[in-house]
Amino acid sequence: MSDQRSEISKLGEFGLIRRQAERIELNHPTTVKGIGDDAAVVKAGDKHLLLTTDMLLEGIHFDLRYVPLRHLGYKSIAVNVSDIAAMNGKPAQALVSLAISNRFSLEAVDELYEGMRLACKEYGVDLVGGDTSSSASGLMISVTLTGFAAPDKVVYRSGAGNNDIICVTGDLGGAYAGLQILEREKEVFLSNPDAQPDLQKSDYVVGRQLKPEARMDIIHEFEELNLVPTSMIDISDGLASELFHIGSQSGMGVKIFEDKIPIDHQTYETAVEFRMDPITFALNGGEDYELLFTVKQSDLEKIKNHPDIHLIGHMHAAKGEHVMITKAGHQVMLKAQGWTHF
Ligand code: ADP
Ligand code: MG
Fold it and tell me: At a CB cut-off of 8 Å and minimum separation 6, what does 64 contact?
């Protein structure tokens, strides 16, 4: 190690991971894919095993002043299932590691586990182990999830081809809208503890923030339709950031159309209320856990009338040129913001 000290913030989260990934050698014959996708891929008999892990930290990823523990437990499983879905796989086993302080009662831990139990039931996951430690500060939950897929069905971020159609499921920006509402109501409450939170007219977006669902329904439909997307990623850091991953790992450019991006009316109204552009919520808000994927033009028939799949653009051969055509018809360069934790 040299004496030099560089700030992590200079590289950002993705730069930091890329830097370490470049230095890591893969030697095991069963390792198919290491760092760089939504899950690692490992040979396991006639199937591929998918491995993913996600950590949730109090004060960084959640605020217990408005996140119920049961929801937090559910979310800690769902966000991992979302990464397995993004590989076109099916989830199987979960390992749960907790760091917890004596601030939490037995009942509180029961609530957290009840949420995890519900999510495991919903997604067909067995909770098979984990680790427990005391924590000097906040609560930490780290979940590792396995999944399986047939080797020829695994979908990577890197497979998008020229002219492939870019699709997203559901609607975008809702979870970020919900976060804005919850943060605002928290401030109101802190300044006046008698105030009642005004959440009713924001029920949809608050739900998007507090109780995200992984889109396993779409993965099952792909199977029924005999459709294998050419590339896929889940939308955890905002559409723009995920488009950059698909574009750069596929060595292509992306072109999307602003008027095709699905935004729920409550998300739209919340953005307006906060004097922000709704499209910014969709492009740069996080935690929607929808799927972004590409399909060949020849597969368009299979999905074009699907009520919950939106065709938002297409890939093009100009590598690194990631653009959006605005409602006014102007072409703007997309910026990948993602989340910077540092
Ligand atoms: P996602 O948002 O899909 O969970 P991330 O952006 O967290 O993906 O991670 C991208 C890739 O980097 C994944 O392959 C993940 O396993 C890997 N990764 C993230 N953090 C680390 C780390 N500290 N060490 C090694 N690999 C990491
Ligand atoms: Mg992911």
Answer: 58, 72, 139
User: Which residue owns the Cα nearest ligand 1 atom 26?
Assistant: 35
Smallest-distance ligand from the CA of 33: 1
**Ligand 1 within 6 A of 190 CB?**
no
Q: Is the CB of 36 under 6 A from ligand 1?
A: yes
Task: Choose among 211, 259, 179: nearest CA to 82.
Answer: 211
CA of 52 from ligand 2 middle (Å) equals 9
Q: pLDDT of 201-221, one tens digit each?
A: 999 999 999 999 999 999 999
pLDDT in tens, 150-188: 999 999 999 999 999 999 999 999 999 999 999 999 988
**Cβ(271)–Cβ(209) under 8 Å?**
no
**242 CB less than 6 Å from ligand 1?**
no
